[in-house]
Design a protein that fits this description.
Radius of gyration: 28 Å
Number of strands: 7
Largest sheet: 3 strands, antiparallel
CATH class of the largest domain: Alpha Beta
Bound molecules: iron/sulfur cluster
Mean pLDDT: 86
Strand content: 15-25%
Order of helices and strands: HEEHEEHEEHE
Number of domains: 2
Strand order of the largest sheet: 3-4-6
Low-confidence stretches: 167-175
């Protein structure tokens, strides 16, 4: 008889414990029901990057003085600056400029230290290609302004994720 009562008591305690665990699980579930989603339906929805997002670099050929500061401050000496010295005007003349985004770590040093501000970070983050050599952008590709995500009519723009700072709908506006 005593064993039976002990078993009933143990069973009751275990049942109560199980009910408590189930209650805790439901509490977590109900808590998340009221939260904003943390995933989006890409590419039908796109995140608007934060204002200080470091995306693909934009380059303005006409402003560049071929000083190569960007190369010296780059942790991997990445930008390729090809120039020739013009004796007539005693100045460097830029011939070509390129950055390989397959190698770039988007640290922003080149943008930060460029004395003529001809480099800037855009909000462009869709850089996938089939051939990695296509990620080596010359001055023409670097000079292209990205389509601002706010102007893309094919997808919804999402800025409501709780962990993201408020982004800019205007996109790249440094020019
Ligand atoms: S630091 Fe700026 S101006 Fe100098 S070479 Fe690089 S991009 Fe051109
Ligand atoms: S962002 Fe950083 S790694 Fe990329 S080119 Fe500029 S300095 Fe180099």
């Amino acid at each position: 008889m005593f064993d039976f009562l002990t078993n009933v008591k143990n069973y009751s305690q275990q049942a109560l414990q199980a009910a408590r665990y189930i209650g805790q699980g439901f509490a977590v579930t109900f808590d998340h029901i009221n939260r904003a989603p943390t995933t989006i339906q890409y590419p039908y929805e796109r995140l608007i990057p934060s204002e200080r997002f470091r995306g693909r670099i934009h380059f303005e050929f006409d402003k560049c003085i071929a000083c190569e500061v960007c190369v010296r401050v780059c942790p991997i000496n990445l930008p390729v600056v090809d120039w020739q010295f013009d004796k007539a005007i005693k100045k460097k003349q830029l011939k070509s400029y390129s950055i390989d985004f397959g190698v770039c770590i988007f640290c922003g040093n080149c943008v930060e230290y460029c004395p003529t501000n001809c480099l800037s970070m855009t909000e462009e983050y869709e850089l996938s290609v089939y051939d990695r050599h296509e990620l080596n952008y010359d001055q023409v590709a670097l000079g292209r302004l990205p389509l601002a995500i706010g102007q893309d009519s094919l997808s919804n723009q999402i800025r409501g994720l709780a962990y993201l700072p408020k982004g800019s709908l205007e996109g790249h506006t440094s020019l």
